[in-house]
Every structure is written in structure tokens, then in C-alpha cells.
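Suppose a colleague, Dr. K., hands you the sequence of a protein chain of 423 amino acids and asks what its three-dimensional shape might be. Before reaching for any lab equipment, you can write down a predicted structure in C-alpha cell form. Begin with the sequence itself:
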Amino acid sequence: MSYFSIDESIENIKNPYTKKLFKEVYSSYAMGNYRSATVMLWSVVVTDLVHKLKELDSIYNDPKALQILQYIQTEQTKDPKSSKWESEIVDKFHKEINFFETFEVANLEHLQKMRHVSAHPVITSTDLLHSPTKETVYSLIRNALESVLTKEALFSSKILDVIFADLNAIKDTLVTFEDRERYFVHKFLNKMPNVLVAKLIKVLWKFVFKVNDSDVKANRGINLDILKVILINRREFFLDFLQQEKTFISDLKLEKDLKDALLDFVLSNRFIMNFFEDECVQTIHAIIDDGKSAKKYQLIKFERIVDYIDYLVTTDTSNFVITNLDIIENESIENNCIEEFKNLCVYGYCQSSSYAEADKMFEKLITPHLSTFNLAQLKTLIDDANNNSQCCDRWRNSSEHQSVRTTITTLDANFDFTPYSNF
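The predicted structure, expressed as C-alpha cells, is then:
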């Protein structure tokens, strides 16, 4: 049997009021009042389920929760003394909200029966009130804690419908990734058990990379952001999902929007390539090589950023795509190859094929890193740029190249610029 502690579980009870009530149950159990503990335990379970319904309704706008609450209110209005709705609440949580597994329902039905025989006299019995054993009550308490009291209301798989409705409602209000991450983590993700997160990841993956109808297309942007949020905040679990669902994620859909969405996602998370089946990897490589955006996605084919940098500086410069600069720089820092990145910056500028490109390359590649270049990199810069008229003859070169010369003289006051007349 797996480890279990009532004391530790009490701290994991989600609702403060439930926690307070359960301490009465535990007190009765500890004092040997097993009949009282059983009767109170059922009341605590029912109370907690009602609180969960109210949370699902008020915070998450779950229509099914509201429907069950209205049913309870109707039953109480018809007959305030009737406990009929208590007998049905577990079944409704199971069938209408998908909150319970079948074995959990059986355990809670057993608790209800034990509560009945402990609270209501049986005329034909020698002992009018049944007194359960210590072991029985311990088992009832454990089942109640694990099946109900320590679960978030969001355990329901039906809550996925609520989540997607909520995301659709806020997509035009919260437009930055940071705002969406903060909102989703606080409202949903922090309260979602892994079993529900797995279901959410699978549906998001389907909506973003496999389905292309009009409703899904309208929400692809925010769905993709939420997929990234889960990857960032539940990384290890996300990787476990990819491993377990290798066949599912390897079933590629090659419509342009779906293909581009997948490539963009993998571009920033290339480790995902390790989870695809081999045939899928080969297909992705073929798409990259044959597509119009091949230069942008070439990076996907390289697991190590230093290998990609080497590829760029040893092949035609047209393979270098400036839109990947942030990825290259960030990974170069993370993988301790920043000098290789700075060599790439020098290379990229010196291979400029037009004045406009040189203007752009200097601004993006040289200016942000100029103060960090070493003397060898600066010498390569002026060597190669001096022989490229697109770098030296453009209108902006005088002031920009002067900044390079100034930087060089701070490292070597006697540096000879005579050979570099164009620069």
C-alpha cells in the first residue's frame, strides 16, 4: 500500500471551511468515537462537493455545475427535510462532471451506507446503532481525503470546455504572451492536476496542429500560447506527455497553416524533435528543405546551436535569417558559445549584398555587441567589410564605421588602419 498520512493530507484540503470541519472528524476518530467520525465524515464530503460546485460556477462559469446547484436548490425548496439530493450528488459528480473514477464512487457509496447504519437505529438488530471499527473508519477517511477533499474543483474533465470558452473570451483583451501566461497560470494551471493537464495538452495540440476549421483557426494564436505556457510551467510533465504520446504527435497534418504552426513551435523548442518518430522527423526535414521558408526553419535540423552557427558561416550567407537572431543569441549564452555567436554577427554584416541589407545588418548584428567584440573579431570585421562595397559605400557607413574604429583604438591605441582605406 502506498504511503498515506492523515495529518499531511489535512494540510492539502483545498477549502478552508472543509478543513475546519474535517478536524472535527479527525478529533472524533483520534478519541475512538468511530460512529461519530463516520457520520460527520459524510456530511463533510457532501459539504465540500457543494463548495466545489459553487467554485466551478462562480469562478469558472461552468454551466454543468450551475445546473446541479439549481437542482439541489429545487429539491431543498420542495422538501427542506429531504436528503435525497445528498444521495445523488456523488453520482452527478461522476456522470455529469467526470470528477470521480468508478472505484471512487464505490468507496463513497460505501461511506454513505456506513453513515446511514451509524446514524439510524435498526429495530431488528441487537445493537440499534452500528459502530464501525477503527480500521474501517481509517479507510473511509483516506478514501474521502483522496477522492474529494484534497482534489481541486478543476479535476473535472468537463472543465476543458469551460477553459476553452474562457480563452476565447479573453483572447482580444489579453494579447501579450506575458499577460496570457499570468492569467492562465493563476486561474487554471496552478489548480489543475496532472491528469487533467495531460488531457488539455492533447486537445491543445489537436487544435493548434491538427484541426483547421474556422472556429479553431480563430483561436490558434491563444491556444498556441497556452501550450507554451504549460511547457514552461510544467516542463517535466510536458516532456513525459510527448514521450507517452509519440504516435499521436507524429501524425502530421500538412495543410499550410497547420504545418507552419508546428514548425514555428518546434523552431523555439527543437528538443521536441527527439520525441517524434523517425519517419516524422524525416518528413519535417523534407518540408524544411523544399519549402519557401526553408532558410527560416533550417535551425530545426540542428540540435546544438554551435553546429548551426558553424553551418551558417561555412555556407552561403543567404541561409542566415535575421529573424532567428534572438534564438541564436539566447542559446549561445545558455550553451557557453557566445564567442561563436559574435563571430557570426561579424560574418553576417560583412556578407551584406545591398546597402539596405548592410544598414540592417550593422544595426542588428554589430551595434548591440560592438563593445563586447574582442580585437580579433574587430580585425575580421574591418578586413572583410573593407572588401565589400555594400558595407563601405553606403551613406550610413561613416558614422557607424567610426564607432568600430573608436572601439578598436580602446583595445589597441597603436592599431594601423592604413590598409583599410575603404573602411
